[in-house]
Amino acid sequence: MFSNGSFEGDECVCSSRVLRTISVSATTMSRPRVLITRRDVPQKALDIINDKCEVDIWHESFPIPRDELLKKISGKDAILCCVTEKIDKDVLDAAGPNLKVIGTMSVGHDHLNLEEIKRRGIKVGYTPGILTDATAELTVALLLATSRRMFEAHTEILNGGWKKSVWSPLWMNGWGLLGSTVGIFGLGRIGQGVLRRLQGFGVKRFIYSGHFPRKEGEEMGAEYVSFDNLLAESDFIIVTCALNDETREIFDDKAFAKMKNSAIIVNTSRGGVIHQDALIKALKTKQIRAAGLDVMVPEPLPTDHELITLPNCTLIPHIGSAEATTREAMATLTATNIVAGLEGHPMPAALC
Question: N or C: which end of the chain has fewer CB within 10 A?
Fold first, then answer.
């Protein structure tokens, strides 16, 4: 009896251990697998995902190469991506049927093949609203840097030009906003944020163009006009629209030809809204006065690109939302979107 009892006791202990092992393994195996395409995602967002998921992070300092993306996404349940990752049919095929959720750390979604994503029933979360203030601030800063020739002036300090031209009456003269007409193409959240910030600069007239007149535009004293009128009447044109089939390369040769020779254009939306060769031609021939770009094609822009050589073109490297609290909030919302989608709950910010 003792021997039999001992055996039974050992069997119970072993069974208990086996059950615990199976339980732990099942728990581990059941955790959704998430691919994160950037190593520098704010820790707060990583903690949210790590708490519920198994995480695979691309640890290099440069964007994940296409071949690595296709390899690493295989079998994943979700992906946290940025605008640098093109999520198309090939990526979705490589992911396989497990992929249920895409969280993009962006408002723009032209890097996502939404038609194919919707067809497969995959949920997509994005980050609207959070980056409005940061991008609006940056847009105003870029407008002022371009119109007042700040980058050109800084170069003059470095190359000795300041010493040669000190206090020359016409040297480094820029163009102010006082009494001007500012046109905004795309009066969404960011466009409205820009308009509000510019109201203290003595702008004489605000006009805007888009699909339809907006109540917010009327409330802020802006006048809705056609696209052609926006081009013809604006001293400064600020581009804050979404990139889609209607807006792609809408600023082309014909558009620049309708603008004032003294006009300045600033783009903080997507590079594809402007036909870049047409812009280069307009800048070189003085068809327009200057341009300020936070976005361009391609990104990153090659260091030998012709745009970089033009003194009347102010370039910054797509940093519209690059503000510390904004980026952390974007990452946190993206992580929350992913976890909610995986758990079958409504996403805080669902694109589809």
Answer: N
Cβ contact 101:59 at 8 Å: no
Tokens of 242: 């979404």
In the structure, what pLDDT confidence band is assigned to residue 167 with cuts at 50, 70 and 90? confident
Report yes or no: 263 and 288 within 8 Å, Cβ to Cβ.
yes
Band (269; pLDDT cuts 50, 70, 90): very high
CB 77 within 8 A of CB 339: no
Strands 205-209 and 181-185, sheet pairing? parallel
Task: State the DSSP H helix or E strand holding residue 55, giving kind and residue range, or none if neither.
Answer: strand 54-57
Asked if 59 is an active-site residue, the reply is no
* 294 pLDDT more than 70: yes
Q: Distance between CA atoms of 199 and 215, rounded to whole angstroms?
A: 17
| Beta partners for residue 207, in sequence order | 183, 223
- Please, which residues have CB within 8 angstroms of residue 146's CB and are 6 or more apart in sequence? 264, 266, 290, 291, 292, 314
Q: Which amino acid is at 186?
A: G
**Amino acid at site 305:** H
At 15, the pLDDT band (50, 70, 90 cuts) reads very low
Q: How far apart, in whole angstroms, are the C-alpha atoms of residue 192 and residue 206?
A: 11
Residue of 59, 109, 111, 318 marked catalytic: 318
Neighbours of 59 (CB within 10 A): 10
Of 19-28, 106-115, 165-174, least confident by mean pLDDT is 19-28
Read out DSSP for 90-145?
HHHHHH-TT--EEEESSS--TTB-HHHHHHTT-EEE--TTTTHHHHHHHHHHHHHH
